[in-house]
Amino acid sequence: MEPKTQKVVIMRHGDRIDNFEPLWTEKAARPWDPPLVHDGKVRAFCTGKKFSNNLGFRFDRVFVSPFLRCLQTASEVVHAVCAVGDIDHTVHMSSADGVVIDPTKIKVSVEYGLCEMLNKRAIRAQNAPKDGDFAFTIPKCEEVLPEGTVDSSVERVYEEMPKWEESIEDARDRYKNIIKTLADKYPTENLLLVTHGEGVGVSVTAYTPDHLTVIEVNYCAYSTLQRTVSCEENGSITHGEFEYCTDQGYTGILTMPSTTAADEIIKEPEPPTP
């Protein structure tokens, strides 16, 4: 059979509420799990439209971190890429604007391995759960995703959340592992992985020959990896190494040649001063 190209897009979530409303965490029951602001949902939906118009391929599956900001981001992207009928691309909109979708176009699953780094460098210490239990359940997470798109039959790579407080190195290894493991598990499918800033950063540094240093990952920024996959007549599958696509135009990721700064972390920005 002719070799095919597998594409994997790794995307950061949209604009989170605690970076725009600093007092939100003081009243929140789950201060470690902020939702998106409205503009974040619009940004995510518009990124989904960009995927449909500019990527040149469609997603078969979406895997998403259990954090609410990622679930909501995935929902907006799915609404955009599965929309029925024409969408006015000049209007900034979100799924709340009555977008009708065909849920059979894509399959969505929650994956703990795509979660935020569970340490104080990524989650503000005062917002983390005191007992280290982030209290995520798969059914509750799936409620946020568009009806009819959820594939609950998928066996997760990480059956549990990482333990608080994981090291930066362990988290980076986790992101690299989850990208490759999911791709190997579905080698003939194109994937969208909705995760956090550090996960997007790892997808760049780990899969560029010169190991570019990632300086900044904006909201809804994304990277694209690709590799050649061959399906043999005996049913076996072989694949090449992933390459980082540099021809996607502006993707919201700022990089520089690798330096001693390569050990810096892509962390969530601090909220504005009241």
UniProtKB/TrEMBL annotation:
A Pfam family per the record: His_Phos_1
Gene3D superfamilies hit by this protein: Phosphoglycerate mutase-like
InterPro entries, alphabetized: His_Pase_superF_clade-1, His_PPase_superfam, Phosphatase_SH3-domain, PRIB5
Alphabetized CDD domains for the sequence: HP (cd07040)
SUPFAM superfamilies noted in UniProt: Phosphoglycerate mutase-like (SSF53254)
Record protein name field: Histidine phosphatase superfamily, clade-1
